[in-house]
Amino acid sequence: MGSTLYHIGFNRDDLGSNPPTLALLSGDPQRAYQIADQYLENVQRLSENRGLHSYWGVLPNGCPILSATSGMGAPSLSIVVNELVQIGIKKIIRIGTCGSIQDHVKTGSIVISQAALCRQGAANDIAPIEYPASADPFLTVALVQAAKELELTHHLGITASVDTFYEGQERTDSANPTLLRSLQNITEEYRALNILNYEMEAGTLFKMAGVYHFAAACVCGVLAQRTRHEQIDLDHKDLAIDSAIRVAILTAQNCE
Ligand SMILES: O=P(O)(O)O[C@H]1O[C@H](CO)[C@@H](O)[C@H]1O
Ligand SMILES: O=c1cc[nH]c(=O)[nH]1
After folding, report:
1. pLDDT of residue 2
2. What is the model's pLDDT at position 255?
3. Which residues, 6+ apart, have CB-to-CB distance to 125 below 8 Å?
4. Which regions of the chain are under pLDDT 50?
5. SS3 letters for 102-159?
6. Mutate to test the pocket of ligand 2, among 26, 94, 95, 97 (most ligand atoms within 8 A of CB)
7. Are the C-beta atoms of residues 35 and 245 closer than 8 Å to each other?
8. Residue 41 pairs with which residues in a beta bridge?
9. Quick one: which atom of ligand 2 is closest to the CA of 100?
């Protein structure tokens, strides 16, 4: 018997005789549960350690997959991804949420990341700052095809992955009264550089994929429209998240 991985709380032996090679990875443990509960069959709870809930289940086509939790931010994600790779995971699709910084990318829609501007400290422990943060092209095209098949409003483009929800995404409506000069107007600059959205994990995930030899992709539901205001649009939250999940599930079915 292999030993239990310290943070995710399970090991390869817990995954049965046909262990999954694909993991759907959500920031939110509730989303990891929702995916298992609504979209997988024969679900088994693997662990609920430190909020990093993980579930084993079977896709409608009979393939086993994992639905796991990264936690928020790149340091937590880096630990979970390292351990998932140690137990044999070869493909990871992040199912996240994000804020749009472009007028045409509306709340309720989804963004599929072709690459990330990676402004994340954790990634610098894994690869040099200049190392590309690019998504796996095959998984990414599969996500786009799934979004088309499901007739969901989707956007393919570059994502900004940053370490903080407030300062790093240039939010001024927060407890911090002083936004650093280096972050003031950064959203406008990113908008001009054709970046679509802000989130907090994809860049580090993509760099890890390059270094560790696994395939990674990311689909995020859009919860905030930063060209209008800073707040989360709760009216479109369920639509955005359900759309991201459905696209990832169909992709997993087509890839496995
Ligand atoms: O909804 P998740 O997957 O957590 O993703 C986004 O939401 C969190 C911030 O609210 C960050 O983790 C960000 O990347
Ligand atoms: O604006 C947002 C919404 C969700 N997640 C983020 O990181 N930013």
Report:
1. 72
2. 79
3. 78
4. none
5. CCCCCCCCEEEEEEEEEECCHHHHCCCCCCCCECCHHHHHHHHHHHHHCCCCEEEEEE
6. 97
7. yes
8. 58
9. 1
d(CA 242, ligand 2 centre) in Å: 16
130 burial (CB, 10 Å; 0-12 / 13-18 / 19+) is exposed
Residue type, 37: D
State whether the beta carbon of 200 lies less than 6 angstroms from ligand 2.
yes
Ligand nearest to the CA of 100: 2
Structural domains in the chain, sorted by start: 12-255 (3.40.50.1580)
Q: Which residues contact 245 (CB under 8 A, 6 or more apart)?
A: 31, 34, 35, 38, 39, 95
Active site residues: 7, 83, 171, 226
Residues 143 and 248: beta-carbon distance below 8 Å? yes
Residue with tokens 């963004």: 111
- How many angstroms separate the CA atoms of 74 and 112, rounded? 18
Task: Report yes or no on whether pTM surpasses 0.95.
Answer: yes
Q: Which pLDDT value is given to residue 229?
A: 95
The predicted structure's pLDDT at residue 51: 97
| 223: three-class secondary structure by DSSP | strand
DSSP structure string for 178-201:
---GGGTTHHHHHHHTTEEEEESS
- pLDDT at res. 97: 98
